[in-house]
Every structure is written in C-alpha cells, then in structure tokens.
Amino acid sequence: xxxxxxxxxxxxxxxxxxxxxxxxxxxxxxxxxxxxxxxxxxxxxxxxxxxxxxxxxxxxxxxxxxxxxxxxxxxxxxxxxxxxxxxxxxxxxxxxxxxxxxxxxxxxxxxxxxxxxxxxxxxxxxxxxxxxxxxxxxxxxxxxxxxxxxxxxxxxxxxxxxxxxxxxxxxxxxxxxxxxxxxxxxxxxxxxxxxxxxxxxxxxxxxxxxxxxxxxxxxxxxxxxxxxxxxxxxxxxxxxxxxxxxxxxxxxxxxxxxxxxxxxxxxxxxxx
Length: 272
Prior knowledge:
Blueprint: H1 2-31, H2 35-38, H3 53-61, H4 64-94, H5 101-110, H6 120-129, H7 147-158, H8 162-170, H9 175-186, H10 188-203, H11 207-212, H12 221-224, E1 229-230, E2 233-234, H13 236-268
Helix pairs in contact: 1-13, 3-13, 4-7, 4-10, 7-13, 10-13
C-alpha cells in the first residue's frame, strides 16, 4: 500500500513536470522548423529537417547583442541594489526595536496585494520628472527594493538565535558590523535565492521597458521579440527562435541553482 502510494505520488509529479517543461521543448523544436512545418495540420512534433536559419534571421532582424548587453547591465544593477536595500530593511524589521515596527511591516506587506500595473502611472511620472526616459536608469531605479524579498530575508534573520546578537553586542560589536560579519554570511542561502528570483524577474521585464524606452540603445532582450510581430502576420518559427535566445540564459541559471531557490524560499517562509 505504501509502495503504491509512493508510485502514484511520483507519477503525478512526473506528469506535472512534463506539463511544465513541454512549452519550452515545443518552443525549441519549433525554432528549428520551417514555416511549412510550423503551420502544418496536424502539427508535427520533431522537425523533419532541422535548420538554424531562424536563429540567423533573428540575430539579423533585431540588435540582440545590444539588447543582451542592456539586459545584463540592468539585471546586475537591479540585483545588487535590491540585495543591499533588502538586507538593511530585513535587519531593521527583525532585530531593531522601534515604535510601530510590526505595524509598519504589516503595511508594507499589504502593498504586495497591489499589482505593479496600478503603479505604472506614478512611476512613469517620476521617471519623466527626473528626465530618465530612454535611459537604462529608468529600468533600474523603480526596482531597487522589494517587499517580498524583504519578507523572505526577515524571516530568515528571525530564525537566527538572539543569543548571537546579544553576545556580539556585549563584545562591543555595532549593529552594522554584526549585520555584515555574522548575519549576512549565515543568510547566504536566502540571499542567493533572492538574487536569482530577482535576476529572472528583471531579465524578463517587458511592459516597463516598452513604456520608458524609445531607442534600441536602451532596450532589453524581451523587447526584441516585439520586432517579429508585424501587421502582415507573425512568422512563428522565427519568433520561437528569438524567444529561445531570450529564455535560454534564465533556464540555464535555474537548472544550476534550482536547489538554492527552493531551499531559500522554504526556509524564508517557515517563520513569521
């Protein structure tokens, strides 16, 4: 009975994994097909004659090297800034005692229920007033902090025994030194998770890029897909090739760091 239950659980997990992975497999296989194969009815799963012409066309159609450079710059800048602000905020809400701390944190958590789309107008006005439109800074400034990541790291900090903090204070350590020499090294799993999740989010950002950038010199990879959608129709095999170029770096990142992501999220959500 127990063995049958285990088999059923693994079978359901395998089916779920297949459903999640199938769109990526279909995208990659479609990028290797010709226009006739992509639009054939019934559809074919494997390409009869795999070709890399779609990738060549995708690289020529849009300046993907420029987009790739911008994506790397924006992603690294957002991750570094978010890590710094998240560490400071999480430490303040987990270790420092000040009036209204819990109420303030609860108010910040309530802001997670507000979708980003509702903040676009305010953020756009701010970026315009600062004359940052069509600039990489416009893609970085609004994403230098996150309540969700603060929540994860705060819960991780709360799991660290208070005795370490009081011992460090007795030995004459300041809050700043205790934070960077003791808490940050101990919170490495959570920080890796936050960095990876933030990198994936920044890399895939599309709508905000469309709003605040006007030239190819300031746009990122997701916008490159827009070049394959024209009034005359969509060549899906070329679009799939471009989408593969955009998605592959994040797939590789997730494959190598999937354990850190799961561990950090699970440990960060256990307490608080």
